[in-house]
Amino acid sequence: MPEGWTDILTETLREAGQRLAIVAPRILAMLALIVLALVAASLARRLTVRLLRLARFDTGAARWGLGGALGRLGVREPPAVLAGQLVYWSLVLIGLLLGLEALEMPAANELIGLALWLLPNLLVAGIVLLAGWLLANFLSQAALIAAVNAQVAGAPLIAFAVRWLVLVFAGGAALTQLGIAREMVLLAFGIAFGGTVLALAMAFGLGAKELAREILESRLRKRDEDRDPVSHV
Amino acid sequence: MRHAPGDALMTIGSTIWERLGQAGPAVAEACGEADLLVGIPVANHGKNVGRVVERAAAGLAQHVALGKTVVLVVAGGPHDGALELLPHPAPAPAPAIRLVHLATASRGMALLAILAAAARPGLRALALADAGLESLSPEGLSRLLGPILAGDAAYVSPAYSHAASEGTLTTNLLAPLLRALYGHRLTQVVGGCAALSGQLLQRFLAVANADPELAERAAEVWLPTEAVTSGSAVAEAAQGRKRLDPGLSPPDLATTLVQVVGPFFTLMERYRAIWFDVQGSREVPLAGERPAFLPPVSGVKVERMVHAFRLGLKDLLPLWEEIVPDETLGQLYPLGVLAPDEFVFPPRLWAQTVYAFAVAHHDRRLPREHLLRALTPLYLGRTAAFLLEAQAAPPERMAELPEQIGRAFEAEKDVLRARWR
Q1: Are residues B228 and B357 in the same domain?
Q2: Is there a domain that residue B113 lies in?
Q3: Exposure b/e, B293-305, CB count within 10 A at least 16 = b
Q4: Are residues B188 and B312 in the same domain?
Q5: What is the per-residue pLDDT across A167-186, written as a single tens digit (0 to 9) for each?
Q6: How do strand B69-76 and strand B286-287 relate by DSSP bridges?
Q7: In terms of CA atoms, which chain B residue is nearest residue A222?
Q8: Which residue is closest to B251 within chain A, CA to CA?
Q9: Mutation test of the interface with chain B: which of A63, A134, A230, A231, choosing the one with the most B Cβ atoms within 10 A?
């Protein structure tokens, strides 16, 4: 036998050693990047929470209805802590992606490419959704109070409609940003939005004749109110 | 003589002068070296201003011996041309009548312009009057100026004879809140006219300079608050029945609450150190005969107010739960089932409710405008109960009704202190 089993063993171990010599620094680099990301994420989380508390973010979030909505979803952490967690996990995710890139594996590179395309769009879509949600809360609250003050009987229904119109609009904008079946979303949104408005108009005119009458009556009553003998200031 | 806002005036209200821009020197020049000044801010309602100017000039004419007298009309924004028909002034020493137009369409800015122009060391007294205050009489104006000129007061507030159905926001909220917070029993807070000394005016402008937006938006609320918090002597002057230009269209009730109660709550933050320690309250001296508090005028219907309260209780409850503490809310629920003619809303419960809204306004639990608008059904409920009480009260007991509300606000003040952080 030209080669004995010891030669094969030596050759195998030598090749394995060579491969390890190539891969080990990459694995070490990956681990170092992940550890670094974890440390940076932890620091960034603390800093975020501290800064948001200084800016009275929790109070502001409560004012905008964010605190109450999170409570209803069973989330007990204050909004500032949640924002800190968001920063933490974003940095950890970035660290993981960088670590994977350090391995220089073809599959990892594809994954990173996809993530790099998706992440900014996800961020923008998230911001659009959050802004839409805040606006929906604000406008529906304003509509509710205005309708009650005008003594309209179906005030919660009006507030509900305003809220969902804004939310549907924000959802459509977020999906368009993500590029998910863009044409389909635009078409579906157009049909849904137009259909909702038409349905509401028909429901209001046909199904809710009483409500329509009350609104008109309350507008007329407003004229009477101007002649009301009670003066307030 | 041209009186440019460049010397001592700049030290007070400099931000306000900046906001006035090119109009500043014009207003200052029109004010001139007046010893006694009546300022009439106008915006979009110049129709009857001529009559008000005429009566103001007649009132000032009683004091011409004291120095130079000027009636200054400052118009913010467009008007219907009636301002050009102001009465021609009689020859000196009769009061001069001057008119200045501002480019800004704002009554608040017109009022601030008058205050800023008047704040000069030589001024003895300034009276302010709404352009729409038809009931202003020469005697009433003279009574407003009297305590200032005699050195007995730095601020004189009007005191009107009125029916229970008039000025219900003042009777049920503004006056009792001012009384409980700052210890002064003023019958009127935003009364369409007032008089103040030059010293108080300078103090007001110095403070308002730090927050010119609020000063512009709510100078009429801030002035009496500044007067009662400054430790200055405050008095009232009887003015008879209040009558406004019927052509004026007041804002809707919710907007009125935002415009009047909002600044009041905001000023509670500024003057927290003062009101927190105030205990009890005291009467303020009155010039003239004590104004009468009369039964409600006929034709007042409380059904619609009670309906508004019930609707609020049904639909705004989720919002009220964020504002009003559970124990107060628990007392409001049973009111929703009362028949309109038996409706009650006790003063102490009302005081607790108002304090809860003041605390929520301070804590910014809701957008502030939403919060103030959400008070409307509760206020209408309280007004309905008050009018029913007034309708049932014998004439000799009418005066006790506002007194009961004032005492209730004083009694519940500890609740406010405990919740205010």
Answers
A1: no
A2: yes
A3: bbbbeeebebebb
A4: no
A5: 988 988 888 888 876 777 77
A6: unpaired
A7: B252
A8: A226
A9: A230
Identify whether B60 is part of a domain. Answer: yes
Which tens digits make up the pLDDT trace of B65-95? 888 999 999 988 665 565 666 777 777 778 8
Residues B198 and B347 in one domain: no
Q: Which run of H or of E encompasses A39?
A: helix A5-54
Other CB atoms closer than 10 Å to residue B316's CB: what's the count? 24
Question: Within a domain: residue B358?
Answer: yes
Q: What HEC string does B69-87 produce?
A: EEEEEEEECCCCCHHHHCC
ipTM: 0.88
**DSSP secondary structure string for all residues of B22-34:** THHHHHHHHHTT-
Residues 6+ apart with CB under 8 A from B258: B369, B372, B373
Q: Is B245 found in the same domain as B330? A: no
How far apart CA B393 and CA B396 sit, in angstroms, is 8
Chain A / chain B CB contacts < 8 angstroms: 88
Q: Which of B291, B320, B352 is the C-terminal boundary of a domain?
A: B291
> Tokens representing B106?
């704002």
**B59, B192: one domain:** yes
Does pLDDT of A189 surpass 70? Answer: yes
Residue B387 falls inside a structural domain: yes
Look at residues B258, B291, B324 and tell me which one is the last residue of a structural domain.
B291
Cβ-based contacts of B165 with chain A (< 8 Å): 229-231
pLDDT of residue A43: 95
Low-confidence ranges of chain B (pLDDT < 50): 1-9
**Neighboring chain A residues of B365 at a CB cutoff of 8 Å:** 62-63
Cβ atoms within 10 A of the Cβ of B116, count? Answer: 28
In this predicted structure, the answer to whether residue A73 has a pLDDT above a threshold of 70 is no
Alpha-carbon Rg of chain A, whole angstroms?
Answer: 30
pLDDT computed for residue B147 by the predictor: 96
Q: Could you tell me if B247 lies within 8 Å of chain A, comparing CB atoms? A: no
Q: Which residues does chain B have within 8 Å of residue A146's beta carbon, measured at their own beta carbons?
A: 254, 373
- Chain A positions touching chain B (beta carbons under 8 Å): 59-60, 62-64, 68, 138, 141-142, 144-149, 151, 153, 155-156, 221-222, 226, 228-233
* pLDDT score at B354: 98
Count of domains observed in chain B: 2
Q: What is the pLDDT of residue B281?
A: 96
Helix and strand element counts for chain B (H, E): 20, 11
Lookup: tokens for B214: 């609020």
Same domain, B33 and B135: yes
Q: Which domain holds residue B230?
A: 8-291
CB contacts, 8 Å: B376 with chain A: 145, 148-149
Nearest residue in chain B measured CA to CA from A231:
B166
Listed range (A160-164, A215-219, B151-155) with the worst mean pLDDT: A215-219
CATH number at residue B14: 3.90.550
Same domain, B238 and B89: yes
Which chain A residues are within 8 Å of B373, Cβ to Cβ?
A: 145-146, 149
- Whether omega for the bond prior to residue B93 falls within 30 degrees of 0, making it cis, is yes
Q: Extract the tokens encoding A33.
A: 């990047």
